[in-house]
């Protein structure tokens, strides 16, 4: 029989901290999550124009322009997720989508949905990069 094994490193020897998330590159994974979320948002916004016009009724030209501008902004921010400002810009985009609900109620509904998705992405980012 052998005695208990002491698994502590000898004094003065520092062990590298284990990766908490288990990901090879947590920063890259989180950037991919943010970029994917914004790309999906852009796609949904553009694909929603016609159904909103048909089912939702009066969708003004201003509302369509706002949708297209928000979709383009989402694609631009998604492409720039390496930049330090990108997560803040994504949060601002969610607020702008909520504000576009003043143009049409369905845009507010989309804003609520994507604000919740973005909040979850921010939560995952915080947990992984902690």
Q: How much strand?
A: under 5%
- Radius of gyration from the alpha-carbon trace, in angstroms: 22 Å
Structural class: mainly alpha
Q: Could you spell the SSE succession in H and E letters?
A: HHHH
Largest sheet: none
Oligomer classification: single chain
Helix content: 55-70%
- Which residues form runs of ≥5 with pLDDT under 50? none
What's the shape? Answer: elongated
Number of contiguous helices: 4
Terminal-residue CA separation: 42 Å
Number of strands: 0
Mean pLDDT: 87
Overall domain count? 1
Pfam family, one: DUF4233
InterPro entries: DUF4233
Keywords: Membrane, Transmembrane, Transmembrane helix
Protein name: DUF4233 domain-containing protein
What this model shows, in words?
The protein is mostly helical and 130 residues long. The protein has one domain (26-129). Helix content is 68%, strand content 0%. The longest helix is centred in the N-terminal third of the chain and has 30 residues, at 26-55. It starts with 25 loop residues before the first helix and ends with a helix. The mean pLDDT is 87.
Short description:
By secondary structure, the chain is an all-alpha fold. The chain is 68% helix and 0% strand.
Topology:
Blueprint (H helix, E strand, L loop, with lengths): L25 H30 L5 H19 L6 H14 L5 H25 L1
Organism: Micromonospora halotolerans
Keywords: Membrane, Transmembrane, Transmembrane helix
Protein name: DUF4233 domain-containing protein
């Amino acid at each position: 029989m052998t005695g208990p094994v002491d698994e502590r490193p000898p004094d003065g020897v520092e062990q590298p901290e284990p990766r908490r998330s288990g990901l090879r590159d947590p920063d890259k994974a989180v950037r991919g999550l943010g970029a994917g979320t914004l790309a999906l948002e852009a796609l949904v916004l553009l694909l929603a124009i016609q159904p909103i016009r048909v089912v939702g009724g009066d969708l003004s030209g201003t509302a369509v322009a706002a949708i297209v501008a928000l979709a383009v902004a989402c694609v631009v921010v998604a492409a720039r997720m390496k930049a330090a400002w990108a997560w803040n810009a994504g949060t601002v985009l969610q607020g702008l989508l909520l504000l576009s609900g003043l143009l049409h109620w369905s845009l507010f509904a989309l804003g609520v949905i994507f604000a919740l998705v973005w909040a979850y992405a921010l939560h995952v980012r915080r947990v992984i990069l902690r």
